[in-house]
Amino acid sequence: MEIGYVYKWVELTTGKWYIGARGGKGCHPDDGYICSSKIVKPLIEKNPEGWQREILFTGDPDEVFYIEAELLKKLDAKHDPQSFNKHNGDGKWSMRGKTFNEEHRKKMSAWQIGRKFSEETIAKRTKSRENFHQPDEARKKISQSLRGRVNGPLSDDQKQKISQALTGRVNGPLSDAHRKLLSEIKKGYKHTEESIQRMRDAHKGKILTEEHKEKISSSSLGHKKSEETKARMRHPKVKSPCPHCGLMCAPHLLQRHINARHPG
Fold first, then answer.
1. How far apart are CA 98 and CA 233, in angstroms?
2. Which of 98, 108, 130 is nearest to 27 (CA)?
3. CA distance 197 to 200
4. What is the dihedral of CA 135, 191, 185, 24, to 10 degrees?
5. Domains observed in the chain
């Protein structure tokens, strides 16, 4: 599966930087790709230890070029003396890269293990995604590329690659800043009718086991609700009656009630 990404190279001795995007066939943050710049690429190949790469964003191959262009415009890259970029995402350029040997891929991968984004980088990524909507044409391409793909148990080789990719990552409770960032990103996002229908179909007729119910209950113990949440709970939206039993339910819970109590 292709994973597009926006990257940033920084020359450690000068602080000068270059931003690019990768969305070609078989692309992945650890695919060994350097960049398309005829100026920057030879400098990195000549002295790889003198450069640092940072992945600013990952997403659909068609989406990353939009993010790259927005970043370059907001940073006014072509007028910044510290930038190697000669445009602000408004020119014609090729983003297709070459294939590198296994040793080079391992070096590129090793540089990224355990890396954490700075607050400034996270803020820039959030800002660049504001008001972004995937074009219908891009959605269609993604849908077509996934048709006929067979899913099944992972092979030992796939499991090993996933394990290596996750090495060095720190898991644990999200910080308040991280929660706030995720909340801001999701504000204003609306599922399509098709997506809503798929979610309904996935849960239709599903009956939770007692063990599952116990886990849900346990996960809520000790959780403190904000004053804003408590205020919303005190003044719930107008409820609607279940067409089967007449039970009054909040609009967002009505379908869940129907699926659980009146399957089929």
1. 56
2. 98
3. 5
4. -40
5. 1-132 (3.40.1440.10), 229-264 (no CATH)
Q: Are 40 and 89 in contact (CB under 8 A)?
A: no
| Residue 78, token pair as written in the block | 């072509």
The pTM assigned to this predicted structure is: 0.37
Number of neighbouring beta carbons within 10 Å of residue 246: 7
Instruction: Enter the tokens of residue 244.
Output: 């089967």
Task: Report the pLDDT averaged over residues 226-248.
Answer: 79
Paired residues of 44 in beta bridges:
none
Hey, which residues does 57 pair with through a beta bridge?
6
Q: Any idea what DSSP says for residue 28?
A: -
* Residues belonging to the chain: 264
Nearest to 41 by CA among 81, 72, 84: 84
Neighbouring residues of 25: CB distance < 8 A, sequence distance ≥ 6: 2
**What is the C-alpha separation between 180 and 74, in angstroms, rounded?**
23
pLDDT at residue 83 in the model = 92
Residue 124: CB atoms within 10 A of its CB come to 19
pLDDT in tens, 41-75: 999 999 989 999 988 888 776 678 878 888 888 88
pLDDT in tens, 153-187: 667 787 777 677 666 555 555 567 766 766 665 66
- In the chain, alpha helices (H): 40-46, 61-75, 102-112, 119-128, 136-146, 156-166, 176-186, 193-203, 210-220, 227-234, 251-261
